[in-house]
Amino acid sequence: MSDDQRRVDEISGTETTGHSWDGIEELNTPLPRWWLWTFYACIAFSAVYVVLFPAIPLVNEATQGVLGWSSRGNLSEELDEVAATNLERTELLQAVSIEDAAADPSLRAFAIAGGRAAFQVNCVQCHGSGAAGGAGYPNLNDDDWLWGGSLAQIEETLLYGIRHDQYDFTRWSEMPAFGAGILTRAEISDVAWHVLDLAGLDVDDVEAAARGATLYYDQCASCHGDIGEGMDDLGAPTLNDAIWLFGDTHADIAKQITAPRHGVMPGWQDRLGEATVRQLAIYVHGLGGGE
Amino acid sequence: MTNDPNPPRLDVAAVNTGAAAEGPVQLYAAREKIHPKRAEGDFRRFKWIVMFVTLGIYYVTPWLRWNRGEFAPDQAVLIDMANRRFYFFFVEIWPQEFPYVAGLLVMAGVGLFLVTSVVGRAWCGYTCPQTVWTDLFLVVERAIEGDRNARIRLDRAPLSAGKLTKRVSKHLIWLLIAVATGGAWIFYFADAPTLFGQFVTGQAAFVAYATVAVLTATTYVFGGLMREQVCIYMCPWPRIQAAMTDADTLIVTYNDWRGEPRTRGRKRAAGLTVAGDCIDCNACVAVCPTGIDIRDGQQLECISCALCIDACDGMMDKVGRPRGLISYATLRDYNHNMALATDPETGALNPDRVRDGAGGYIQKIRHIGAGILIRPRTLIYFGIWAAIGVGMVVALGLRDRLEINVQHDRNPLFVALSDGSIRNGYTVKLLNMIPEPRVVELSVDGLAGAVMTSPDLGLSPAPRVAIQLQPDQVRSLRVFVQQPPWFLAPGNEDFQLIVRDPASGEVDIYDATFNRRDAGP
């Protein structure tokens, strides 16, 4: 500060602060008084604010404020509001048939949004985040369904699971292990060639496939169908298509005939509730494979 | 012309001369109240017209109707926040078309630079809402309390029934104007007649009342109470103006070269001294809405309203001198004229040097010329402004009203179906950007044997589907494209998803990719 250099500027008639940079001097123009009052008003506002709202950070937490407002409380209020609006639609979703629910644009959008979220939490562990499955875990995007791909069938599968003994309504089937004394290794190989033939895949040993045809009619057709069309009620896979849960080579098929693996899916009725299951069913059906 | 050589001197001083601050310098200064006197003249008339037009545009625009058919609002100018649409007469803007609005704002900015570089702070002096509403509030003030002298007397008078009546009625009318101002604002954001009905019956949204309350408060406080304080202390524009003006910018100027030395009284009457045209009547100070003395030169407070020009011209008419003692002039012309009027030996101003002896001024004196318009600065500003304008008009003329946006599923990349087909999933968004429903055709092109299905449409597989679009809506569809096994080739293939309006012929194309199994090793 160079107070001694203060002087009255002759052009403006205002005193300078005495600060000078390269000959440019700063005028000491007084602030308007209303500005001062605005400043005091801000201080008064902040004093009130500090009392009413969380404000001063202490060691473990900030002061709470007498209104009891918190951002977390605010969020939970908003979540409650959303839950209240969703409750209405959740009830509506269950009040109609699943087909009608899926056909209603707003219920469908609601179900798909909720179903997507539930899927990401509960289903991706086996079916994958894109629902594309893997060996032994069905791809839910395609049009091949072991236990039926209609809305109602998908919902039933979701509610009670597959081969899940906790639920009386769970669907169950078991393919005999043909390697355990029913068929010989050579016969199993013949049947496997025939199955490849049914699926229209390349058959290396045409004679073996022909031999396998007879065995297939005797042993397999009752569940898998005469031409390998499968059976939804028994969860018997379609054999004459391009989709193979455990692989489409002769060795893969022979292995499955010898000692079949059976997938197990848990039922979700108790864990997720019927409303979420219905949302999931509509979502999964909409992935593109629904029948 | 009355040719009174010595009109009475008005008792007024500029509020920004430091003279008031005698004694020790204070950190804070009380505001000196300004009582602007009514001005008469060409600029005042022009300002009345500008006020009428700008206020008219502001208040009337939301009530203008524009027929867009039954599926869109019929308000000519509407900012529909809830539906994310902006309507301006024949133009409808969607959120993604906001660059048009940004372009308008850029044009407004560059236009402001252009105007400022030519005529200084014309925005401040004529069209700034702060100026226009202050003017309007002053009209009310004058009508109730009288002109400058009457208002000063009223201010000093002790409180009486008469004073109280005047004050209360003035503030009431101000508040009414303020409510109307805030009220007009909200009508830009909803159907005006509907909202008006809801507003007066208490059924409008809380935000409508809050907006009106805030704008009422700001209009009343800024236009009625704070006035020039807003311009001087709150507005950034006075600070920026120095960068916008140059020696060729027209600025409200006191022409010292013909005004000084200012004289009045007996000496002037007797012709005993060299006398400039300024008769020191203070008329220019009395009319100034920011309370300054333009004769002190260009100042931050000057909003270029030119009322001092009107006041001075009136006085010059009275004393029988030519108009233009205070005028719009460029710094270059002013300096030229000053040099002519300055005695090279004494350095003193002598207006006799530029007088032609017949009551006028010598030919060498420069006045406003066309040169103020044509110079690199203005041409560049105008070029930028016009280029943006032309660009926007062209873009507006060519913009799509039917669009397709596509997101390709990434998880899974493709799905093998039971018959051996490969299927890819897409989220297709069809934008119908006109306020009419229409049926458009979505097709796949360039992918052998490809057909589409959609769980949202429930269609049987087809290479081409008709889709119903709602007016002014986006329709989002899950679309599956599948290629039968006998057309499959290894690797990915590019193809097109095409949306077409058979009625209008509009087409929009999305270049998509179809994922398939890679060739085996």
Structure description:
Chain A has 291 residues and is mainly alpha-helical. Among the domains of chain A are: 73-159 and 271-288, Cytochrome c-like domain (Cytochrome Bc1 Complex, Chain D, domain 2, Orthogonal Bundle), CATH 1.10.760.10; 185-258, Cytochrome c-like domain (Cytochrome Bc1 Complex, Chain D, domain 2, Orthogonal Bundle), CATH 1.10.760.10. Chain A has helices at residues 33-52, 71-95, 98-103, 105-122, 124-127, 151-160, 185-198, 206-219, 221-224, 250-258, 269-272, 274-285; strands at 16-21, 24-27, 31-32. In chain A, strands 1-2 form a two-stranded antiparallel ribbon. The N and C termini of chain A lie far apart (86 Å). Chain B has 521 residues and is of the alpha+beta class. Helix content of chain B is 39%, strand content 16%. Chain B is built from 16 helices and 15 strands. Chain B has helices spanning 42-60, 99-119, 122-127, 129-145, 148-156, 161-186, 192-200, 206-226, 228-234, 237-244, 256-259, 266-269, 283-287, 307-319, 331-341, 376-398, and strands spanning 28-29, 77-80, 85-88, 91-93, 251-254, 326-329, 402-408, 415-416, 422-432, 438-445, 451-453, 464-469, 474-483, 493-500, 507-514. In chain B, the strands form 4 sheets. In chain B, strands 7, 8, 9, 11 and 13 form a 5-stranded antiparallel sheet that branches. A 4-stranded antiparallel sheet of chain B has the order 12-10-14-15, with no helix packed on it. Chain B has a 3-stranded antiparallel sheet with strand order 2-3-4, with no helix packed on it. Chain B is elongated, with a radius of gyration of 34 Å. The model of chain B has no long low-confidence stretch (mean pLDDT 89). Classes of the chains: A mainly alpha (291), B alpha+beta (521). Chain A binds chain B through residues 8-9, 12-15, 28, 30-36, 128-132, 139, 141-144, 238, 241-243, 285-286, 288-290, and chain B through 16-19, 21, 25-31, 226, 229, 233, 409-412, 415-420, 423, 425, 453, 455, 478, 480, 485.
